[in-house]
Amino acid sequence: MNGEMETLADLSKHYRDSVPADLREANSFEWYLEEVYEDPKIARNAHQRVADMFDFYGTRYDEDAGVVEYLMASEDPLHDGENVFYGREVHESIHEFVNKVKSGARGLGPEKRIKLLLGPVGSGKSHFDWLSRRYFEDFTMRDEGRMYTFRWTNLCDIIRDQDPGDNVVKSPMNQDPIVLLPQEQRDIVIEGLNENLQAPYTIRNDQALDPASEFYMDRLLAHYDDDLESVLENHIEIIRLVASENKRQCVETFEPKDKKNQDETELTGDVNYSKLAVYGESDPRAFDYSGAFCNANRGIFSGEELLKLQREFLYDFLHASQEQTIKPKNNPRIDIDQVIVGRTNMPEYREKKGDEKMEAFNDRTKRIDFPYVLEYEQEAEIYRKMLRNADVPDIHVEPHTLEMSGLFGVLTRITEPDSDTITLVQKAKAYNGELDDGDDIDVRKLREEGEAKADIAEGMDGVSARFIGDEIAEAIMDSTHRGRKYLSPLSSFTHLEENLENHGSIPEENLGRYHRYLEMVREEYKERAIEDVRHALAYDIDEIRRQGEKYMDHVMAYIDDATVEDELTGRDQDPDEKFLRAVEEKLNIPEDRKEDFRQEVSNWVSRRAREGTSFDPQDNDRLRRALERKLWEDKKHNINFSALVSANELDDDERSTWVDALVEQGYSRDGAREVLEFAGAEVAKSELEA
């Protein structure tokens, strides 16, 4: 609104537009029948509605990762991207969860299982569960996700002992109005619905009315001489049902309170003591349907830290999942319809995994591993999201800062490779997609080896993004207090190193290994910083383009067994093998692989030509890097390396030129000066030793 004041009328209109038009309406059962025949999906069960919810907000197939991404998780359209999830492994887990819900929607079995999200602390499983509940609430507000329930009216007119305060009673379990029909008549309606249904599942409903509603139905049918039409016309109103966790309606979160004093009534409901004196102890009207399973009916039940519950307390979950019923104390069984999601961390899972007495519970769960991210650039996006969602001071995040922090996190999560031909850092780069065509690395095999070597699965152990994000935040505040307007990898490394021992979730036996990983990351950053400085000191786009064109001319002549015109004499000559190898050696391409590389680059140029795109060496990452490094070799003798070691020896104009070049690469001016002193000294040392 560009800062313009919103009036109360504006705000009121925004609210009214956001809620369903029929939210406050009461309709007849006849109206409901017409609506459900028109749109059979109204009568979906919980698994079917949740499955449709994931598809409603959109999907995208990531060809590079080979996984389906659900936009509610990959883009978060409801919250402007505030809750986006990153990482191939995480989206695979979300896809696996959705597949189990969709299988349950088809009645294939998972509808009778607990979907158990298993992962280390800070892996995002709780946040994904939270996000699913928020989207379910939104989905039920829309026409595509609408659902209805009913309320009993005018009960005191017929039932003489009915409390006047209970003249109108909403369905205690928020049941679908279709359950008001006896099963034989209901099946006739459902058969007609399925003939009109366009969905991969069929509508099914064999639930019994909840005990209180069953009581009212029996009394009213007796009064009307079993005239069902009169009962439904005179005593039933159909109302819109919208999920709301705050109202404990169709969405419920259950959190264990006292581990030693757990009460099953928290799940199944209890006697309504205020009604005992009115109705008596055995009357179903004296029951309070306030248990977590009751509140979650028609929607999502979310169990936090599920495996921290006592074994006896988990028995209620067996019936809730397998039988889709609950059994309150001194009451008949009650049918339920909900997607039961549980969450647990690794220690609790390991503790319960070997418990033979947990066999029945484990058999009724579908475990979905929710690992840490294993691509360090995707991990860096998590930190960027954290910064986007916070009130960050006016500070510049230097290149490589978040990526190198992410690389450290990934190194702690992946297993050491079996082969001596690849290092742990190279494995992390391979997972990140940094593979050249000439690299002899089988990523699929690496992943299979990692899964086999890991305790449960790769990515289920290590340092969390939460810990690293906290240290980045501390580094930002420390830089602010010191009057530094930039955050560099060096300051992030310092905070990570100093606080590893202070983090309670990191086992002491891992500290030595993690410090070693930090040194690996420092070394990787040093190479990248040196590359940036080389780029700044010797980069010449026109010269790179000219050298690239020369390289391609000689490559094409080599492949075609032809000659090339000499630039100086104009005479035809054989391809300059010395020049070609000078470029290729900058990528460590051995003599026996040179033809593969030349053919690869030639094919790339040919593809671009067919697409009508002109040749530009800047567009081929491997060729560009090779040409940049060759240009560096050609120009380095003109650079004052001793001046790089001591910043005071730099000429102001010369320093300014180099700083400008680094600023073009994304550095702040102060950050550029730091990297010049850090990487420049390393470059100078290596060149002076050469």
Quaternary class:
single chain
Q: Order of strands across the biggest sheet?
A: 8-11-14-4-15
User: Could you name the ranges where pLDDT drops below 50 across 5 or more consecutive residues?
Assistant: none
Mean pLDDT: 89
Number of strands: 19
Keywords: Kinase, Transferase
GO molecular function, one term: kinase activity
Protein name: PrkA family serine protein kinase
Domain PrkA AAA: 27-421
Written description of the protein model:
With 690 residues, this protein is of the alpha/beta class. The strands form seven sheets. A five-stranded parallel β-sheet has the order 8-11-14-4-15. Strand 2 and strand 3 (67-70) form a beta hairpin. Helix 3 packs across helix 5 (88-105), helix 16 packs across helix 17 and helix 23 (541-559) packs across helix 25 (594-610). The mean pLDDT is 89.
